[in-house]
Write a structure and sequence with these properties.
The complex is a heterodimer of chains A (117) and B (246).
Chain A: H1 2-24, H2 30-48, H3 50-59, H4 65-112
Helix pairs in contact in A: 1-2, 2-4, 3-4
Chain B: E1 9-15, H1 22-32, E2 37-42, H2 49-55, E3 59-62, H3 69-82, E4 87-90, H4 102-112, E5 116-121, H5 133-150, E6 162-165, H6 166-174, H7 181-191, E7 196-201, H8 215-234, H9 241-245
Parallel strand pairs in B: 1-2, 1-4, 2-3, 5-7
Antiparallel strand pairs in B: 4-6, 5-6
The chains are: A mainly alpha (117), B alpha/beta (246).
Chain lengths: 117, 246
């Protein structure tokens, strides 16, 4: 069990480090880093406080803290994935609108220049 | 230069890699409706669709990225609405729809007062036109599904041969399904209490190319459209920044 906590701590720190590195190199926008940082901090907190995890497992009616840990990880990442599905959907909508608008504007510019038809 | 009368109706042809058939389709439209405004919306074709369409005398709206059928058709609707057209007839670029029926669709649109007219295959028409078994099953399934939703029978909800008036044009400019749009578009109309009618028309074998809906994609098609239909029924029309932007 201790190894699991150590592994989770390392993974959480790794996640936070990767997010911060991406922010520093401007590969990730600040607003989109918040949910990953929160997920990393939440997992790190759980891995650093085994008593809290045991309490959570008892409260959820789970025998093993490891199961509670896996459930917590699953929930955190489901929320983050859902958030990014929404972001991707919005971006796709905006992209379609932009593609259509560019095509119409190009056509109109071409028509004005006498290039079309 | 289009005449003002030309702004009455736009013939819209969505096209993706239709170089083998697009010229003939445009020539057929020109033959039955001389001087008609014809707009080919090129969905980022990799072949000579654009040059074939332009040299045949059509206006060509070229999308810089491939959007799929719904996004392609909606671009044409947006163009037509912004340019002041009163109605749009959409026909396929593969030659399956007979342009001689355009007039009958428009007559029905004008006389019936409905917002959309669908050209459906006349029984026994179209020698050589064979609807595949999978497509027939799909049409039958969606016919049954749509009947209680639309409150009326629809013969072929998958037909892409449609005429819309300016009210429907305004609606479809704002919201139009992206993939496999024909069935979902009926639900979009229904949500606004818009009506549609049907006109029997001749369906022909495609002049070239193959349908993009292969048997393997059919199951995905059914599930996708099924979900799309229910999403359109459930859709919230409240004040949303996204809804306003689109």
């Amino acid at each position: 069990m201790d190894r699991l906590y150590i592994l989770l701590s390392l993974l959480s720190l790794g996640l936070i480090a990767i997010v911060l590195r991406s922010l520093r190199r401007e590969r990730l926008r600040v607003e989109h880093s918040v949910s990953w940082l929160l997920a990393g901090v939440a997992l790190l907190s759980l891995s650093l406080s085994p008593p809290a995890l045991r309490s959570a497992a008892r409260w959820l009616g789970l025998g093993e803290p490891a199961v509670a840990l896996m459930a917590a990880i699953l929930m955190v990442f489901l929320v983050v994935f859902y958030k990014y599905s929404r972001v991707v959907s919005e971006l796709k909508d905006m992209n379609i609108t932009l593609v259509q608008r560019v095509a119409i504007l190009e056509f109109k510019v071409g028509r004005q220049d006498g290039e079309v038809r | 230069m289009r005449s003002q009368a030309g702004r009455d109706t736009l013939v819209l042809i969505p096209a993706y890699n239709e170089e083998a058939s697009i010229r003939r389709v445009i020539e057929e439209v020109n033959a039955v409706r001389p001087g008609a405004s014809i707009l080919v919306v090129n969905d980022c074709s990799a072949d000579a669709t654009v040059s074939e369409a332009a040299s045949a005398g059509a206006m060509v709206l070229s999308l810089p990225c491939h959007l799929g059928l719904g996004g392609c058709v909606q671009a044409g609707y947006k163009f037509a609405f912004a340019d002041g057209y009163q109605s749009v007839v959409r026909i396929d670029g593969d030659g399956q729809h007979d342009p001689r029926d355009i007039g009958r669709l428009l007559e029905c649109l004008a006389s019936s007062g409905v917002e959309m007219v669908i050209g459906v295959r006349a029984p026994g028409s179209g020698d050589g036109f064979r609807t595949s078994l999978i497509r027939r099953i799909g049409i039958g399934f969606f016919r049954l599904l749509l009947r209680p939703i639309l409150g009326r029978r629809v013969s072929d909800p998958t037909s892409g041969f449609v005429a819309v008036n300016r009210r429907a044009l305004e609606l479809f400019s704002r919201t139009f399904p992206l993939e496999y749009p024909e069935i979902e578009a009926l639900v979009v109309l229904q949500r606004k209490a818009f009506r549609f009618d049907e006109v029997q028309s001749v369906m022909r074998p495609r002049m070239a190319g193959r349908s993009s809906i292969t048997p393997a994609k059919s199951i995905f098609f059914v599930l996708h459209v099924l979900l799309g239909v229910f999403v359109n029924i459930l859709r919230y029309d409240g004040p949303s920044p996204r809804a306003q932007k689109r």
